Amino acid sequence: MPESRVLICPDQTRTFPGHTLSGHFFVTCISRNQMKSLLIILTLVIFLPSGQEEVRNTRARSQMVKSQIVARGISDPATLRAMERVPRHLFVPVALAGSAYSDQPLPIGYNQTISQPFIVAYMTELSKPAKGKKALEIGTGSGYQAAVLAEIVDTVYTVEIVPELAREAASRLKILGYGNIVARYGDGYKGWPEHSPFDIILVTAAADHIPGPLKEQLAEGGRLVMPVGNPATVQELIVLTKRKGRITEQRLEPVRFVPLKRLK
Ligand code: SAH
To answer: Which atom of ligand 1 has the smallest separation from the CA of 188?
Structure first.
């Protein structure tokens, strides 16, 4: 079977036989205009489906913010803007991307979960994020909560105890361009003293008490948000505020998080 080659020839379209040392081939001559049309069609065939996919995801995200987050009382404009911007579908396993904007937590492997979108927004709003602030997150997981915070504050430090999740999240955040997130593997119970004090500390795993080192690493005027209670069942969302060195505690909604583990 002779092979076929395409040449651009000004103002004509024809096919004629040619040959090389290795055999015969057909040369198809097409005009410059035909080549342009061909390139446009190719570009559309390659890029249109991914463009449509992006439009679908952006719509789903807007709908998520309206129906799950604004409708339940979250009103901080910075938090809402961050939830609109972070592509949650890129933080869940590929097989679950279609459920990324649904009203539920999702498994991310290693027996861990990415929190329900509303909980992420609620904890973000409670932490009172703003430009100029420095945040610490314990429990990087997928990196989603860190990304939401990083849309608002100056720098986010985040610690994850499962090495594989720590590695995956760090590379995902880098690819997505979050240059203001510093992620590391380790036991977050101890916080990250080298970078303390923090204006915001978010703990996204549950324990029956608030780790002492985290209270110490909270800045003056800072806020710590954490689920506290029975790690195996239900906890309460707690907000600690430090003013003039004194800590006050506020108890909020019942929540359910995975347990805060300790490195042996
Ligand atoms: N914030 C995450 C979800 C948190 S799930 C997200 O947005 O996807 C809770 C995470 O805390 C899990 O990944 C779990 O491995 C991690 N974790 C549990 N104990 C920890 C500890 N002592 N230090 C750091 N991370 C911990």
So the answer is: 23
Please give the distance, rounded to the nearest whole angstrom, from the Cα atom of residue 97 to the centre of ligand 1: 20
* Residue spans of alpha helices (H) in the chain: 32-64, 77-85, 117-126, 144-150, 163-175, 212-216
* Per-residue pLDDT, 155: 98
129 near 200, Cβ under 8 Å?
A: yes
- Percent of the chain whose predicted confidence (pLDDT) is above 90: 78
The Cα-based distances of 86 to 47, 147, 203, 216 in angstroms read 22, 7, 20, 31
Rounded to an integer, what distance in angstroms lies between the CA atom of residue 138 and that of residue 226?
9
Residue tagged active-site, from 62, 102, 115, 171: 115
Where residue 30 falls among pLDDT bands split at 50, 70, 90? confident
pLDDT tens, position by position, 54-87: 899 999 999 999 999 999 999 999 999 999 999 9
Q: Is 115 a catalytic residue?
A: yes
More confident residue, 256 or 51: 256
138, 157, 235: residue to mutate for ligand 1 pocket, most atoms within 8 A of CB: 138
